[in-house]
Amino acid sequence: MKHLPSPNSKKKSLANCLPVAFLAVGLILFFNACNKTKTERQIVSEEQKEKEAFDALQERYKNVTSKGFTVETNEKLKTMIELEDGTMLSWEKYHQLNPRSNTFNTLQVPDDCNEAPESTILNTSLVFDCATGEYKLSAKFRILLDAQVLTQSPTNANNKTVGRVRIMDGNTQVDPATGYHQYNIAANNIVYIKETLNNGGVPCNEYEVSFSATFTYAQVPQLSGTNFRLSLRYYTVCGGQAYVTSEGSPFYTANIESDPCKRNDKVWINPAYSGMYAAIAGTNGLLGQGPVCNWPNYVNPCTHEISIYDITNGSYTLVGQETLLNTGFKSLSYLQVGKKYRFEYNNRKNQTCDFGAPPQYGTLSCRTPFKTIEDWQF
Questions:
Q1: Which residue ranges does UniProt annotate as crossing the membrane (predicted)?
Q2: Which of 53, 275, 300, 303 could form a disulfide with 326 if both were Cys (CB 3.0 to 4.6 A apart)?
């Protein structure tokens, strides 16, 4: 005979189960509440980290009152030969005069490379300082020749190796009316790079020579054709007896203030550290609280294109690609403290940005072909 539980035992059993059931439901609700609280805390934490990253970026650049950009040029210059008496000759004319004649018997131009000394302007950088109203221009040249580049003439200490700048309106010089701005080049701005080979396989010395120049806003007329004309005069010694100078022919920078297709604007970068995300901002990305100023004739790019590489321990691994509005800000949560990163960025512009810009700039669509490169150790 099968034993059936009594009605009372059923009630008792059910009564024993109810607290367990309620406890289980309570635990589920408790855990759900905990999970919800944790998620909310995570969101608050993420928002807080982004706010702190933005604040840190503002703090880093709050005292910067300038706009700046770099122009990669890599433009070869025609080099002239100038004798110590001031006679200026082309390389071809110099050879026609026979340097071994009595007239030039002490002149040994650095031609052991079998070619004219080669001058190339590698890049220029231009910054406008809003606080002082000054333009700050810097340029770097590459010199290739079989001789040493000196800071001055060995026979006349008054003749210095110099960088020269003329401010032009098209082909007309507008400042100064009597000549050029001249800047002596210090020894630490003449850097020996390496021995390289010319087209014929003959060894030549390679140098990089750089200089900086400063102009007030009043010195740079805001004309449609305003540009900077750059040249470099450097002294060499050859054979221990004769000295010559060479001056690269003029190079013109474009009126790039109003054309972001011909320049790269600075991206503001703040590295990550413990408890803080890395962050980046565009040219006006700190919303008036950072390095933003009214540059005469300045036209913003639409965006920056940014590639980020992990270069820790000599590696070169792409870890992120960002498109950043010129007024934009981004925190980069995927970048890690303790690593070294390379930021490569350039300008991009299309017909929809810079509303109200002059019509000749409103239809541009471009992406600068070169990149500005910055390395940051986090």
A1: 12-31
A2: 300
